[in-house]
Specification:
alpha+beta; Aspartate Aminotransferase, domain 2; Aspartate Aminotransferase, domain 1; 2 domains; 5-stranded antiparallel β-sheet; 9 strands; 34% helix; 14% strand; globular
Length: 290
């Protein structure tokens, strides 16, 4: 994501060093050893492709190999996986294959469309305790902190999340098949392994991307009367257009789509309550831009 570049550029202010391994070398231990100057305190792995549309999102098997390679090279490093959009896509999570910590958003699926805000951090207890001390207060850790009365929505959403994500994956898979038959480029293809719950539709036309997302907005249960327009957002060098009208502000788990206005003009579609909703909205919106 473009916004991460600003985070990375600010690390020096905290005297934190940063090195990045190109995606194509993610499993090349020789390359990693030759390029990393010092054993890192933390190794950060981003599972989803973000707006890097032609990069595959990582499956659990791929994460397992990467983690194993890192352990061989940097035995003391903490391995953190940004698991956003990857939760419940497979029958295992990164912590099942050796990652120390996973993080993600509660309004992007794992909150089951009921969590109104928030994020999660999960993993090894000793690391979680250290994080708790940093986020709240030393010595207090996870024993204090605001819950804002949201516990019920968060826990009930977590219970429902596997079902909603499963429905979304069914819908995205079927839509991917239909769109490919109609001549559209899609990633992943319907029969390819999925590392996250995002479907990419490559439209290769600025106006088609804008119109497609506007048609998605018309199908939303909330704010369907509005048409989204591309806007410059903080951290992005190109305009971004977002379509989504759900009961949780900012939620992408309820069904949403977005895109950044630069070639090849890719729509990123995610979420949904049911596979019927996902299939109907995507196909109907595509038909209206043909």
């Amino acid at each position: 994501y473009d916004t991460l570049k600003r985070v990375i550029s600010s690390l020096g202010e905290w005297d934190i060093g940063y090195q990045e391994i190109p995606f194509e070398y993610r499993e090349d231990t020789g390359y990693i050893t030759s390029k990393v100057d010092n054993p890192p305190r933390i190794v950060f792995i981003q599972r989803s492709c973000g707006y890097n549309w032609n990069r595959n999102s990582l499956t659990i098997d791929e994460i397992a190999r990467i983690v194993s390679n890192i352990r061989d090279i940097f035995k003391e490093s903490i391995i953190l996986v940004d698991n956003c959009y990857g939760e419940f896509v497979e029958d295992r999570e990164p912590t099942d294959v050796g990652a120390d910590i996973i993080v993600g958003s509660l309004i992007k699926g794992v909150g089951g469309n009921l969590a109104l805000t928030g994020a999660y951090i999960a993993g090894k207890k000793e690391i979680i305790d250290r994080i708790g001390d940093f986020i709240t207060a030393p010595g207090q850790g996870r024993d204090i902190g605001p819950t804002l009365g949201l516990q019920r929505g968060i826990l009930q959403g977590l219970l429902f999340a596997p079902h909603f994500i499963g429905e979304s994956l069914i819908g995205l898979t079927i839509a991917s098949y239909v769109l490919e038959r109609l001549g559209f480029e899609v990633l992943p293809k319907w029969d390819e392994p999925r590392g996250d719950g995002v479907q990419r539709i490559i439209l290769r036309d600025r106006e088609k991307l804008v119109r497609f997302l506007q048609e998605i907005q018309r199908s939303c249960p909330i704010n369907s009367m509005y048409l989204p327009e591309p806007q410059y957002l903080p951290g992005y060098s190109d305009p971004v257009i977002l379509a989504g009208g759900g009961f949780v502000q900012g939620s992408t788990g309820e069904f949403s789509a977005d895109g950044i206005l630069r070639p090849p003009y890719v729509a990123f579609v995610q979420g949904g309550y049911s596979h019927n909703q996902v299939i109907t909205v995507i196909i109907d919106s595509i038909r209206k831009i043909l």
